[in-house]
Amino acid sequence: MIAFLLKRATNAAFVMLAVALLAFVIFRFFGDPVEMMVNEQATQADRAELRERLGLNDGLITQYGRFVTHAVQGDFGISYRNQQDVMVLIKERFPATFELVLVATVISLVVGIPLGVITAVYRNSRLANALQLGSIVGVSLPSFVVGILLILGFSVTLGWLPGFGRGETVDIGWWSTGFLTPSGRAALILPSISLSTFQVTLVMRLVRAEMLETLRADYIKFARARGVPTARVQWRHALRNCLMPVITLTGMQIGNLIAFALVTETVFQWPGMGMLFIQAVTFVDIPVMAAYLMIVSFIFVALNTLVDITYAWVDPRLRDDTARTGGGNG
Amino acid sequence: MHMRQLLLATAAVAGLAGAAQAENVLKWGANRDIGSLDPYSYGDSFTINVLNHVYEGLVRYNKDLKIEPALAESWEILDDQVTWRFALRKGVTFHDGAPFTADDVVASLERVSDETSPLKGNLPAYVSSRAVDDYTVDITLNGTYPLLLNDLTNIHIFDKEWMTAHDALKPTDIGAGVEGYATYNANGTGPFSVESRQPDAKTVFVKNPNWWDTPQHNLDRIELLPVTSAATRVAALLSGEINFTNDAPVQDLPRLAAAPNVSVLEGVDLRTVMIGFPFRDKLSTGADNPFTDVKVREALYKAIDLDLIHKKVMRGKSRIAGATVAPPIPGYVPALDELPGFDPEAAKALLAEAGVPEGLSFEFSCISDGLVNEEQFCQAIASMWSRVGLAPKLDVAPRAVQSPKRTNGKTDVYILGWATLPMLDAYSPLLQIFHTKEGNAGVFNWGGWSFPELDRLIDAAGSELDLDKRLALETEALGIVKKEHIMLPLHQQPMAWAVTDEVTTMPLFPDNKPRLWFAQVAPGS
């Protein structure tokens, strides 16, 4: 098991290094940060000097090496535009993104699971067909369109909810939370609905497929035959057996949601990591872009590694080759 | 228990917010956030504009964009012609209560001119400064230079004691990897002080009750609420979550104007949009460069239907330009604004006369996140040029990508917008764009042209202290620019702000900078 863990950790480290290298190759095409940092009146000599001081004239490998050496020590440098320590910037923004993703995930489960069960149990009914059709709309509508529609409906026309921002927040240590104030909670509603639209339909379709499968299983028939009430069979016995893949999917999707939150954050001016990244791209703020990519890919790699480890723990055959050949019987 | 304390604190904050409702609040939905609270560590004119509410310069622009005394009460040029003596205003205090004196001016000028400062170009002629006594400062320049006051409107004065106490005498040096105190804190003399800041969410400014000037505004608070997405910003204005924006999107203006509670403030920006040419031997394609011939440049000008671009692309909201500076800019005279006249046949004849091969291909570089409708008018111009037998290759990309290509001469024909900021004088484009590239001059001379007669006039204007003589020199220089068609002016672009009916006074400035110390809101907004 230890050998397996080491192997997984090494793989993860290599993935991270590759992501960083790729990032540095791509940054070359983002343009020149110095052009954004100085203003009209700076001379060519001033620009060249600043470029030299920031180490932008060094070769790709030198810049990459310097970035990795500093990054492993947790030092991502200073943002060009904000002149703040990049780790501080990201730490400041992480709670906003995390709370948004958390609420969106909860919405996707609370809404998606019952809808999935309903469409499976009452398949071919008008309601189920309507929900199925609605889910196609949900999958295909881009999230910025959903966002703008929500703002027009609930903020401009009805005036019920704020259309942008995060409301008042309360600091608990370094974590700023919007859960504890009325305006913070109100501000969460529209962006999290917008972010969860895709996720809701995904969960609903997965639950539906799993339920259709499970409802045909023998033990369900036996339960029915024993006279267990239908609702209990469907919502308790069948649904429980469908939830394992849903939980796996939800876990894996958290990485995606953090990455997709970028669009939602831009539409709702949500001061999270995605917003920070978009601005960094506009201003070619290389330290921030690099750190964001590293952190998001770390979240992806960590989630995947965790899932792999859990599976290996559950299923010894996945641990290593010796176990596979030794334990196999053909 | 901890949680309960938090809830109580929250309730207290909510209570305060309730009390604050009776105040006059301007909720400013900007299209982006300021970079930091330090105006001098990043070259961003929007950040400097916003922080001008907190920090002030020795002089400032009044409502008509004329220079008037601010922290300095008067000034004179000493007999050596290169030293300027400023008499400072007495009784001014910084927001932390410290008195404003000559040492603060010297320290601030040193800070912005520091060798690590990305904005040292804002004070190009500066050599040194000296406190003569507590309320007198001498500034020494590298020669006779008429535009020091224009430059000083944008040089904000910091408190020396405050900077010394917090190790902020130098601008934040990103290369050194150390954060600066002034990034998170501000202490100026201006009409407003910073109450709190959450990046990308909200920065709150409150009225400075001890301001030295008599306020023309009636604001108690300004909340700067960046809303990057244009659609969201429009929605926020309609729902009243913001009551002012300095960037009302052109495509939403009819909708905003139709809303009962919103008024749109429209004007023409000072920014002149121009087309520039390469003066190198070869084009980026490797072909011989025909653009060094003035006939070719004139032909390209005659091929453009400026009227059509004005009507269709700019929806009638731009101002067609024949001059490379806008009318309010000193140095402009109406004669410069004469238009070339749209004449594709004449253009073809000129091209033939100059021996330009049919179907000449060249790069035409435009910026996707640059000027108003830049991508659209670039497409229009490219197709107008195609009609006279040229084959422009349109290259559209974000500013960050195009800038290095342009400064390295890797593109052919390009678009440039120039508003003469922060100087507000024709000397700005003459020095930065039209002068031969050498030393401080010609930084934006991307084409690499050189007109000795033009340089002579610009240099003479740059050391002429008599205003009328200087402007005459500048006008003459602009005349050469026009005659030689060095760049082809297209139009001054439109600008639009919008306010809800809570805002009663909001003067629109053609340099597109809000100056909220002139703004008024309905009491209790």
UniProtKB/TrEMBL annotation, chain A:
TM segment ranges: 12-30, 100-122, 134-161, 186-207, 242-264, 276-303
Subcellular location: Cell membrane
Keyword Aminoacyl-tRNA synthetase listed: no
Alphabetized Pfam families for the sequence: BPD_transp_1, BPD_transp_1_N
Membrane topology: Multi-pass membrane protein
N-terminal signal peptide: none
Domain ABC transmembrane type-1: 94-307
UniProtKB keywords: Cell membrane, Membrane, Transmembrane, Transmembrane helix, Transport
Family from the record: Belongs to the binding-protein-dependent transport system permease family.
Name of this protein: ABC transporter permease
